[in-house]
Amino acid sequence: MSNETPRIAVEILDTTLRDGAQGEGITFSVQDKLAVVLALDKLGVTWIEAGNPGSNPKDMEFFRLAADLRLENARLCAFGSTRKKGIRAGADPQVLSLLEANTEAVVIFGKSWDLHVTEILRVSLEENLAMIAETVAFLKEQGRLVLYDAEHFFDGRLANEAYALATVKAALEAGADRIVLCDTNGGSFPDTIAEGVTAVRALVPAAGGNTAAIPEAGAPYSILGIHAHNDADMASANTVAAVKAGCRHVQGTLLGFGERCGNTSLAVVIPSMELKLGLPCLPEGRLEHISELSWKVAEIANIAVPDNMPYIGAHAFSHKAGMHADGILKISRSFEHVAPALVGNDRHFLMSEMGGRSAIAERAKKIDPSITKDHPVTATLAAKLKNMEAEGWQFEGADASFELLVRRELGRYQPFFRIEAYRVVSEHPTGETIACSHAWAKVWVDGQYEIAAAEGDGPVNALDGALRRALQHFYPELEQVRLSDYKVRVIDGNAATAAKVRVLIESTDGRSRWSTVGVSEDIIDASRAALVDSIEYKLIGDIERRFKAYL
Questions:
Q1: Do 368 and 410 touch, CB atoms closer than 8 A?
Q2: Residue whose C-alpha is closest to residue 289's, from 47, 38, 542, 6
Q3: What is the DSSP track for 379-419?
Q4: Alpha-carbon gap, residue 365 to 350, rounded angstroms
Q5: CA-to-CA distance for 107 and 89, rounded, in angstroms?
Q6: What is the pLDDT along the chain (551 residues), one digit of tens a residue?
Q7: At the fourth CATH level, which superfamily is domain 11-301?
Q8: Residues whose CB falls within 8 Å of the CB of residue 281, separated by 6 or more in sequence, listed in order
Q9: SS3 state at 145
């Protein structure tokens, strides 16, 4: 593991595996957690809050296995609460479990809001202060670096400022290495956050023990941190406000998921701090990997990255209006606040009747660099695009299908296979038997035929399985491809069951993602068209990558 470098101005603690795991629908196996740790370490975060060993055996098993990981940048933290009332810290099983996790650092949370002390914990205000101080002191005696989370600090300060500050002072004087101010209910606004941070900064230099005063903004590290929730859609703004007020430790989850409405999204605030505030959070050269690694963590968590997520989302640098596309091509900063490559994302010109020839030409240049907006093929593509959209096709969310359309128009498309016939049958038995679908497909490839069958959860899943199984005989690389998203849109509802449908399919091979579209009055036929485009696009991409590698 590398040492902290002077480049880091704001240290990052990722709590995807602890607070993020509390989000609805999020479940990590032990192997999932290990994979997330490796991704976060590659990104270069300083701390990974990896779980609560006192809450479940799975987390303790994770910490046992994680001890063998060779991390280059990140350090693991175990998370838990202060000691319980009426018991010594050294005799509290939950506190002792933090030591058993064998991490260099531990994160302890305690109550800052007097309401929680008297009504939730049901202890005296004095006992709560003792619980904080004694737990921090005990863990320091055991050689641990202690990060203290002041839970509900901002609500507590509004209710009883003197007591909220007293809880922070108790942790400081006991030797806490970090004080993290938590907007636990997620309802604060940036001005409240900034005022709270400022109040604590005034307190820190007077603290005893081994605690140093907070360095000025821009210094390598600070003792003060921020942990914001997103219940008022303010988590990112509140985090930035806290950093501007003096915090140099930021907590959040990479993709923002967590309890209730989630946490600060680190994939958003890290680029903002690095690119907008000039405060590096990651080792040199890591920011450009944030999109790739965020998508990887999303894959492990089995969630979709929101298309409109700033910086890393599929739509973050997408341009549809012709005026915007023209402006981008002339001066990129005219419609982009940062260059997409800085965060590992790509610019997309959405193909529609609104896009204009400049956008079409820019996309076509990826296939033929000689194409300009005045090229004849650009005019042909623009006309074809308008006609197809009138029939229900939509390419703005199907980049791969549009690229194949361009290749066909340029005469640079040779089909890899042909479907001779296919059949799909769905069964819906009564009783407890689960409904399923069966499909078979006959394909022709270079003078040879192959027939394969598959069973699936639905007709499209079955057809996808049968088609790829038949083609894997000729193209083994298709074994890595799977559908990651499937959407159906009825184009003309007035036609009732005879209406056309548009099917959008997102596919992945574990390395990249691409989207294709199909349109038909028959939902299976529309799905077939999108599936064929998906496979063709994958095969073309593989051939071109191999050719470039050969050169």
A1: yes
A2: 38
A3: HHHHHHHHHHHHTT---TT-HHHHHHHHHHHHT----S-EE
A4: 15
A5: 15
A6: 444 445 788 999 999 999 999 999 999 999 999 999 999 999 999 999 999 998 888 899 999 999 999 999 999 999 999 999 999 999 999 999 999 999 999 999 999 999 999 999 999 999 999 999 999 999 999 999 999 999 999 999 999 999 999 999 999 999 999 999 999 999 999 999 999 999 998 876 543 333 333 344 433 334 899 999 999 999 999 999 999 999 999 999 999 999 999 999 999 999 999 999 999 999 999 999 999 999 899 989 988 889 899 999 988 887 766 666 667 767 777 888 999 999 998 877 665 554 567 778 877 888 888 888 888 888 888 888 888 888 888 887 788 998 899 999 888 888 999 999 999 998 776 656 566 899 999 999 999 999 999 998 888 889 999 999 999 989 999 998 988 888 898 876 555 555 789 999 999 887 788 999 999 999 999 999 999 999 999 999 888 877 666 54
A7: Aldolase class I (3.20.20.70)
A8: 8, 9, 10, 11, 12, 45, 250, 270, 273, 274
A9: strand
Supply the DSSP symbol for 120: I
Place of tokens 């946490």: 263
Q: Which two tokens stand for residue 257?
A: 């998921």
- Give the separation between CA 254 and CA 158, rounded to whole angstroms: 29
Alpha helices in 313-457 (DSSP H): 322-330, 356-364, 376-390, 399-410
Residues of each domain in the chain carrying CATH 3.20.20.70: 11-301
Neighbours of 529 (CB within 10 A): 18
Q: What does the alpha-carbon distance between residue 382 and residue 359 come to, in Å, rounded to a whole number?
A: 10
- Secondary element (H or E) of residue 296: helix 290-301
CA distance 228 to 235: 5
CA distance 25 to 255: 14
